[in-house]
Amino acid sequence: MTIAPAAAGTEDTGGRPVAPGGWLGWLTSTDHKRIGLLTVGTCLVMFLLMGVLALLMRSQLAQPDQDIVDPDTFDQLFTVHGSGMIYMVFTPFALGMGIYLVPLQIGAPGIAAPRLTLLGYWLFALGAALMLSGFGTNDGAHASGWFSYPPLADKEHSPGIGSDLWIAGVVLSTTGVIIMAWAVLWTVLRRRARGMTMLRLPVFCWSMIASCLMVIGAFPALLAALALLAVGRADPAVFASNTWNIGYQHLFWFYGHPVVYVMFFPYLAAATEVLAVFSGRRVFGYRGTALSLLVFAALSMSVWGHHMFATGQATNDYYSLTSIALLVPAGVEYFSMIGTILGGRLRFTTPMLFALAFIPQFLIGGLTGIMIGTPVIDYHVTDSYFIVAHLHYVLFAGSAFGLFAAVYYWFPKVTGAMLSERLGRLHFWLLVLGTNLAFLPMFALGYLGMPRRVATYADFDGFTWLNLLASSGAGILAIGVSVFVVNVLWTLRTICLGRERKAGDDPWQAHTLEWATTSPPPRLNFGADRPLPPVSSFAPLLDLQERQSDRTAPAPGRQEASGP
């Protein structure tokens, strides 16, 4: 598709049509960097909106027998919050990072199928808008959980157009994510620069390969499940048989477990690259890490049944075994991160702090995941706040910290300006405090028997002080995220006024190719004045730094003259 000239001045000197500028240029751009930023920016807006919903829920649960919102509204809040964070924030944000960074890291001038990639973004954005529009309908938004099991989600038990809008929104968003994953995967496989072999790809690119394979392999199962749900809403007789009720769960969780790793791998890889740069060392166990990502992705397709232990319709021994087997590739990745920083000369910048905190916090989410992959424990804590705590240690204490490490690390590449280190450190410490204060008490709440998805509880239940702690932590998180928003907006304002703190092209002494070009990069990524350096490993800029250091070092046995 070409852009036809609409007025004088829309053609270049050769008579070729020129893309529009301004906001229209952004919204119709086929530049992978702009598409990536549109995706990431939309996800961050959704992140803030979903955070507001979480604050409403935690305000409701801070004390027993409160009625800040009614039970039906509370159901809508947790449904849209969970759906938004998974379908509209962490998953597409990961793909948005890949769209922006992968072509730069492999030395490509652009992304494969740029128009298709832009279509993927617009499908995702339209899906997000449709899901949120449910709040404006007479019956409110969808209220059956982010998984929406039938028969709870059928027309009889979930009437109203809000549920139909939710289905349409998730279908559109998921379709867009699948399209974006195809584009990123095709780019990394077919558009690498000379010398960039597969075993010279940065760890982040390997994480995107594994994530895209899971998106392509597992996400169509969600589309099939939602198609089944839509048919069941049109014909309630479909879910009169338990066969289709359980069948829906199998389809959904075949998607539902791999998506956890799509929301994990890119953030793990971002944290790993940050650790390597600010330790001044190469990624430890690079080949093992790349292999572990692929093994992890393959195993993720075999564990979905552990979400269904309580149904009695899953083979416990098999799904428990495959769940525990995930410890092996996960352990390789953790040892890689720890081995990378051991013996390094650590620089405790804001991105480094977030990357370091990622390690122990996500470990809590991972280990509790193994616990609930064991049937005897799962029977006790299923559908309790223990599950809520586990999920939030995976997605917030883990992935969100990797996300913020990525934002602080690559912000100078995107804008050419530095975010405030002082505000960044304040943001970090508020998030560490708020995260653990909000979610650690939920493990105890779940073990003591508080069910998830309840709008209130009685004073005699004994849950009051733990809920108050969790709600206080949520308030601290809100303050921390507000500091981050102020930091970003203030820096963008200084850029607009020309008063920004210039970052330079590579303020971090980074290791990968995206830092070999200008910050921000030009339209085709690498100009004639900035030729690609030779690629001889997965850290080509570190190779270049070492060669330059060797050339400036005195020759062995040679002494500098001293004295007059």
Protein model, in words:
The protein is 65% helix and 0% strand. The protein is an all-alpha fold and 564 residues long. Helix 3 (71-105) runs antiparallel to helix 4 (114-133), helix 9 crosses helix 15 and helix 13 (350-372) packs antiparallel against helix 15. It is globular and about 75 Å long. It starts with 21 loop residues before the first helix and ends in a 12-residue tail after the last helix. It has helices spanning 22-27, 32-61, 71-105, 114-133, 161-190, 203-234, 242-256, 258-262, 265-279, 286-300, 316-325, 327-341, 350-372, 375-381, 385-415, 421-448, 464-497, 540-552. The protein contains 18 helices and no strands.
Secondary structural class: mainly alpha
Stretches with pLDDT under 50, minimum 5 residues: 1-9, 559-564
Distance between the termini: 73 Å
Number of helices: 18
Order of helices and strands: HHHHHHHHHHHHHHHHHH
Rounded radius of gyration (Å)? 25 Å
Strand content: under 5%
Biggest sheet details? none
Whole-number mean pLDDT: 93
Count of DSSP strands = 0
- Helix proportion range: 55-70%
Overall outline: globular
State the oligomer. single chain
In short:
The protein is mainly alpha-helical and 564 residues long. Helix content is 65%, strand content 0%.
Based on the model shown, name its key terms.
mainly alpha; globular; disordered C terminus
Write the layout of secondary structure elements.
Layout: H1 22-27, H2 32-61, H3 71-105, H4 114-133, H5 161-190, H6 203-234, H7 242-256, H8 258-262, H9 265-279, H10 286-300, H11 316-325, H12 327-341, H13 350-372, H14 375-381, H15 385-415, H16 421-448, H17 464-497, H18 540-552
Helix pairs in contact: 2-3, 2-4, 2-17, 3-4, 3-5, 3-6, 4-5, 5-6, 6-7, 6-9, 6-10, 9-12, 9-13, 9-15, 10-12, 13-15, 13-16, 15-16, 16-17
